[in-house]
Write a structure and sequence with these properties.
By secondary structure, this protein is mostly beta strands. It has 3 domains: about 120 residues, no CATH class; about 60 residues, no CATH class; about 130 residues, no CATH class. The chain is built from 3 helices and 31 strands. The strands form 2 sheets. The chain has a 16-stranded mixed sheet. Strands 1-4-7-3-9-11-13-15-17-19-21-23-25-31-27 form a 15-stranded mixed sheet. Strand 5 and strand 6 form a beta hairpin. The N terminus is likely disordered.
């Protein structure tokens, strides 16, 4: 067998080149860090409304905070500019290129942050290697009349919205979002946690990656999550929730429409109907029905449990089936069909429908004694 021979002088030369490259990068980072210059300054602007009904805020890198203030008749914007440059002259030059821009179109006021583009930055090889200018940002703190509508668009940074009576829309690519005390609300987050409370209207919440918490929502609530935990409570209206991966916990809701791929789901204090379909995961419902309502709960792999904390008026027709698992009931039921893994019957007048199924798992259904 022929074996390739590596010439020692070539191997040594390559190793020396690699070592030199590593040393150069190390020195570049060290030198650049030593030369770095930081600058931060807070500025203010006031904008007259002039009949505006909505404010649109866009910021590609930095936090955004919008607060409704009772009695305010204008828009007050406080913004903090931050940058790290190679030296003071370079940092000052780029610092002066950052600012907020205001535009008016119809009944909208748009506040957007202008950042230096690549052509404005230092072409020095040392600066390009370490990417110091990735640290520039502008944080916005805006006060507005509470009745005005708000739209916020952010690429990177946290968002806070509070005390707003008008409709609000938030779109965030990366960063946490918090909204407290708002009217109708729509939020779409690509990566980050979402926390919402005290919504006087309806809410639509979506997150690709991150947890979702919502509390005290008066209107209908729609929640969609690709990956993350969902925690909801105090929902006066109906709930539609869809999740690909993550557990769901809901306490206090009218009706429920749930679709899950992977993760357990628990709903307590359910006052209306339930439709809950899962590919994998347990489904548990504690119901306090106010009127006649249907309950459909299905999962391919997991347990199904339905507990009536209050007797369902008019009774219900019951159908229970499990491919592999046990069935447990505490009901005044008239049985029409029964087997090891299925049960069909009628409870009282049978005016509602209860359908419970799982391919692999136990099923339990019960109600308090009359």
């Amino acid at each position: 067998m022929n074996m390739r021979r590596i010439r020692p002088e070539i191997s040594s030369a390559r190793a020396a080149l690699r070592g030199a490259a590593v040393l150069f990068l190390f020195l570049a980072f060290a030198a650049s860090a030593a030369l770095a210059y930081d600058r931060e300054e807070t500025l203010q602007k006031r904008l007259p409304l002039q009949g505006a009904k909505r404010i649109i805020v866009t910021n590609s890198r930095g936090d955004v905070k919008v607060i409704g203030e009772k009695g305010r008749s204008d828009v007050f914007c406080e913004y903090t500019k931050s940058i790290r440059g190679r030296d003071q002259d370079e940092a000052d030059r780029l610092f002066n290129l950052m600012d907020i821009e205001v535009a008016r179109a119809g009944s909208d006021i748009t506040i957007s942050v202008r950042y230096p583009d690549r052509s404005d930055r230092d072409r020095n090889i040392l600066a390009m290697l370490v990417q110091h200018y990735a640290g520039l940002s502008v944080d916005l703190n805006i006060a507005v009349p509470p009745e005005i509508g708000v739209e916020i668009v952010s690429a990177s940074g946290d968002i806070e919205l509070a005390s707003m009576l008008g409709a609000a829309m938030i779109t965030s690519a990366s960063g946490d979002v918090e909204a407290v005390g708002v009217g109708d609300l729509k939020v779409d987050v690509s990566s980050g946690d979402l926390t919402v409370s005290e919504v006087s209207g309806k809410a639509v919440l979506s997150s690709s990656s991150g947890s979702i918490e919502a509390h005290a929502i008066k209107g209908a609530l729609s929640v969609r999550s690709s990956s993350g935990e969902i925690i909801l409570s105090g929902l006066a209206g109906d709930l539609a929730v869809e999740t690909s991966s993550g557990d769901v916990a809901v306490d206090g809701v009218r009706s429920v429409d749930y679709s899950g791929t992977s993760g357990s789901a628990r709903f307590t204090g359910v006052r209306g109907a339930v439709t809950a379909i899962a590919t994998s995961g347990d489904i548990e419902v504690d119901a306090t029905p106010e009127l006649i309502a249907n309950y459909e709960m299905r999962t391919s792999s997991g347990q199904v449990a339905l507990t009536f904390e209050r007797v369902l008026k008019g009774g219900f027709a019951l159908k229970v089936r499990t491919t592999s698992g046990d069935i447990s009931t505490t009901l005044p039921i008239t049985v029409t069909k029964v087997g090891r893994h299925y049960l069909v019957g009628v409870v009282r007048e049978g005016k509602s429908i209860v359908l419970l199924e799982t391919a692999s798992g136990d099923i339990d259904v019960s109600e308090p004694e009359e």
